[in-house]
Each structure stands twice: as C-alpha cells, then as structure tokens.
Specification:
Structural class: alpha+beta
Strand content: 5-15%
Distance between the termini: 142 Å
CATH class of one domain: Alpha Beta
CATH architecture of one domain: 2-Layer Sandwich
Oligomer: single chain
Order of helices and strands: HHHEEEEHHEHH
Helix content: 25-40%
Radius of gyration: 36 Å
Length: 199
C-alpha cells in the first residue's frame, strides 16, 4: 500500500501556470490599454464628453439636461416682423387680449389687423381658453400685428401638445425676414436712380 501511494504521489503533474497571450489585433490592444486622463497645458482634464473651452472654464457641463431651461405657460415669447418687436405672454383665461395695456379692438381698429392677431388661436380653436398680454414697439400697424401673431404662435407651440405641425404648415412659426431695403447714397431710394436729363 505504501509503495502504491508513493507511485501516485510521483505521478502527479505540477500545476500549469497560465501563459499570457499577446493581443491578436490592434482593436484588442486598444481595449486592453488602461484609460487615463491626460492633463492639458491649461490644467484642465481632457473629458470623455466633448466640451468647449468656455464650458470647462466656467465649470458647466454642456451635455447635462439639467442646464436646459424648459419653457412653460406664462413665459415671455418674442415675435418680430419688419421693425416691430412683440413680447407675448399667455395665461389661462377667457380669451381677453390686451396690447400695451389697451384692448386689442382699440389698439388695432381695423378687422384685418385683428384677424392676423387671432389666426393662431382660431386655427387651434383656443381663442376662448387663453388670455394674451402683449408689449409691442416699433414699426407700423401691419408689422406689429404680424409680430404679435408670431409671438402667440410660439407660445401655443410650447403650451399645446401636437400643435406644431398645424402651426408650421399654416406658416405661423416662420419669421418673415422681409424688410425695407436701405437707401443708397447717389440714389433717390434703395435702387431708384436720379432721372436722366439730356439738357
């Protein structure tokens, strides 16, 4: 029995040590390489997310969703047309519209201007659900009416879900870039030249 035990002890093989194999491809070598953060010359760490120098300097994470402010009902929205600028505020109400602390019918006496202001609300059948207060300046009556319309449309686009497509197709979310072209020196107007006189 003792001889058999000795034979069995002699026949046991030593434990094999694992052999490290070299990476077969460049991709494996890159994945196995340790990820370290390099220091730039300015002293800022090179982050994985692409941030601008200004964001790093101010300590702002440009990719964080918490930095984005969510627009809501009661915020001011801006509408522009020609030289007119309108600040529009929308709140729950009965459909009253005040422009520069005056009723819309007094501020815009013509029906055409009133219809332009009400177009986004009528399109969505919301003309009796919201009160609108507007502060508008610059330009004439037509420019001011269309600036107010753009501001109301931008409000409704944020407040009302599923309204973007209908407002976009109607053209109420598009800022009209047309303006009066400036007068040029040597001409009577922007392009109208001086009348030629032979004698």
């Amino acid at each position: 029995m003792s001889e058999n035990n000795e034979n069995t002890e002699n026949t046991t093989t030593p434990q094999e040590t694992p052999v490290e194999t070299a990476p077969t491809s460049k991709i494996e070598a890159k994945s196995e390489a340790p990820t370290t953060t390099k220091k730039e010359e300015g002293g800022f760490e090179q982050l994985a997310s692409r941030q601008t120098y200004k964001d790093l300097r101010l300590g702002v994470n440009s990719n964080a969703e918490s930095n984005k402010r969510v627009r809501k009902l009661g915020d001011l929205f801006t509408g522009r047309r020609k030289r007119s600028i309108a600040r529009v505020k929308l709140v729950k109400g009965t459909g009253k519209i005040t422009i520069n602390k005056v009723d819309m019918e007094k501020f815009f006496p013509r029906k055409m201007w009133q219809q332009k202001v009400l177009q986004p609300l009528v399109l969505l059948n919301k003309n009796n659900e919201y009160d609108v207060s507007v502060n508008v300046k610059g330009g004439g009556n037509t420019g001011q009416a269309e600036a107010v319309r753009l501001g109301i449309a931008r409000c409704l686009d944020v407040v009302e879900p599923n309204s973007h497509k209908s407002l976009r197709q109607a053209g109420f979310l598009t800022r009209d870039p047309r303006k009066v072209e400036r007068k040029k020196y040597g001409l009577r107007k922007a392009r109208r030249g001086v009348q030629f006189s032979k004698r």
